[in-house]
Each structure stands twice: as structure tokens, then as C-alpha cells.
Amino acid sequence: MELGKVYARRLQSLRIDNIIVYDTDEFIRGKVMDSIKQIAERCADRSHSTPDFVAATLREAIVSGAIAPGSVIRQDTVAAEIDVSKIPVREALSRLEAEGLVQFQRNRGAEVAPVSIAQMRELFAMRERLECLALEYSIPNLTKPDFVRARAVIKQAKRSSDPVELCRFNHDFHEILYSGAADGLLRDTIRRLMTLAERYIRIHLRMTGMSARTNAEHKELIRLARDRDIDGAGELMTVHLAKAAQRLARHFEKQGFSPAG
């Protein structure tokens, strides 16, 4: 499957060996079938080097589904699409492999990593443990400006219905909440897990948008953090992420995917 093509034909079945794939028409309705060039234009201003730029472009293309799970990513095609040499493409693909978004297969090269309900559940279980630990480290050091910024992000999310914006606001909210912790291995690992989880979240948000319950839980997390209630915030975060995983699992199961897949 070539770069930039979700599928060459309309997929009538959405189940292939327990791997979640995407219906072409659903992508068209959701307006997520941006070309690699369009994605590259959006990523260019945020990048500081050519490998950063290529990695940001491919990361967004994979997370959004513009390049579908299982697709082969050909270095020469990517280089031609976004007008760079193959060297930064190779470096970017190595980064994405470390992030879990790309796999290198013998005799095939780089492929977009598959997605499954089982992986989604594992991601959220890991997030529960690590994000509660991040709260424990972060909450004592959060300041009034942090809470102001977090509330502003919630207001922005309430006004938006765009899945890309909503995922960014959700990411920003969690980043602020953990900003009191040292920016080391823990937060780097959480960021990686959130990027992997976003592949699932975006599909769900295209169908439902951000729920009022999610925004309410975010507001309550701010209140608990402001009150320095580490235990209460940890309990709510556990529930918050567990409910998100349950909603995603129900959504995919309704589409015909096996809970074990």
C-alpha cells in the first residue's frame, strides 16, 4: 500500500486479523484524508530541523490515519512528496520506530504499526499507573498560573468540535497537570503513550466529539490539584482513563472488532 493512500479500493469489511483498519468513506466524511504535503505544511513551522520536520509530518500522518496501519512507507516517496533528501526520512523513521508508530520488516522496509483493542487497553492501563505517579510528583509544585492555563485549555476544548484540536487540547491539559514534575523519563514515557493512544482517540472523537463528562472530570482534576489532594486526584485520574478506555473499546466492538483483538 503506497504512501498517502488509505486504500486502493473500498473496504467492505473492517476486520483483518484482529487489526483495526479504516473505512475509506469514513475518512472522507471526517475530512482526515489530508495529503502528506498538506500535513507537511502544517508541521513546518513547528520544526527546528529537517529530521524533526519529517518526523512531525509522518507522526501526524500516522496518528490521523492519513497513512493507514500496515502501509509501507517508502523513503523515496516521502522524500519526493515533501521535498527533502532520503537521509532525514531515514532518521525520522528510526525515531518513529522508537516511538512505536513504525515497524521495520525484512524485505519490506518501514510499515505503519498495527492497532488493536488489546493494545489500546494496554496503553491506557500503563497511562493510569504512570500518570498517577506524575500527579504525585507534580501537584505539590503546581502554581496559580498553571491552574489558569489549564482552565483556559478546558474552555477552548468546549468550543471546538475538531478532532485534531481536541486531541491537542487534551494533550496540553495533561502536560500542564504534570508540569510540576521533572521533565525526565517519566514525562517522556507518558508523552509517547499519549501519542500512541491518540491513534484510537481521534477515531472516537470524529464520531462523538469531546464529552461533557470529560470536561467535567478535567475541571475536577484542577480543583483537586489546587487543593493539593494527591490521593483524590490519583483516584479520579484512574477512573478518568479507565472510562476513556471503556468508551473506546465499546466503540470499536460496535464496529465488529473482537474484545480480544
Polypeptide structure, described:
- It is a single chain.
- Helix content is 65%, strand content 5%.
- It has 261 residues and is mainly alpha-helical.
- Helix 2 (36-44) crosses helix 3.
- The two termini are 22 Å apart.
- The protein has two domains: 15-112, Winged helix-like DNA-binding domain superfamily/Winged helix DNA-binding domain (Arc Repressor Mutant, subunit A); 117-254, Up-down Bundle (Four Helix Bundle (Hemerythrin (Met), subunit A)), CATH 1.20.120.530.
- The longest helix is centred in the C-terminal third of the chain and has 25 residues, at 230-254.
- It contains eleven helices and five strands.
- Mean pLDDT is 83; it is low at 1-33.
Shape: globular
Write out the strand line-up for the largest beta sheet, numbering strands in chain order.
3-5-4
Percent range for β-strand residues: 5-15%
Task: Give the helix/strand class.
Answer: mainly alpha
**How many β-strands, per DSSP?**
5
CATH architecture of the largest domain: Up-down Bundle
Radius of gyration over C-alpha positions, nearest whole angstrom: 19 Å
H/E series? EEHHHEHHEEHHHHHH
Helical content stands at 55-70%
Question: How is the CATH topology of the largest domain named?
Answer: Four Helix Bundle (Hemerythrin (Met), subunit A)
Mean pLDDT, as a whole number? Answer: 83
Q: What is the number of domains?
A: 2
CATH superfamily of the largest domain: GntR ligand-binding domain-like
Q: What's the CATH class label of the largest domain?
A: Mainly Alpha
- Which blocks of ≥5 consecutive residues have pLDDT under 50? 1-33
